[in-house]
Amino acid sequence: VDLREKENLSPSLRFRLRVFADAELDQIHRSPERLRTLWMIWSAKEAGFKIAKKIDPNTIFAHREFIVSVE
User: Which stretches of the chain are assigned E, i.e. beta strand?
Assistant: First the structure.
């Protein structure tokens, strides 16, 4: 995710609520670098899905169900 691109600088509330689980939203909110944390979690979700899809081709990407944590 290119943080210099305008559309990546302020993801909508609708997007955040549709994509991130409550625990992820909490982690994003508590982060001193909220935008970076948001996109790191998004990237981790995508990577996790790609791995899960290779293991089981029937895997469905239910965004809020792929819960990740960034440390």
Answer: none
Q: Is 41 exposed, middle or buried (0-12, 13-18, 19+ CB in 10 A)?
A: buried
Coil vs helix vs strand at 7: helix
pLDDT of 29 reads: 93
The C-alpha atoms of residue 71 and residue 56 are separated, in whole angstroms, by 27
- Length of the chain in residues, anyone? 71
10 backbone dihedrals φ, ψ, rounded to 5°:
-150, 75
Alpha carbons 21 and 5: distance in angstroms, whole number: 25
To the question of pTM greater than 0.85 for the whole model, the response is no
Q: What tokens were used for 55?
A: 């293991």
Give the single-character DSSP code of 21: -
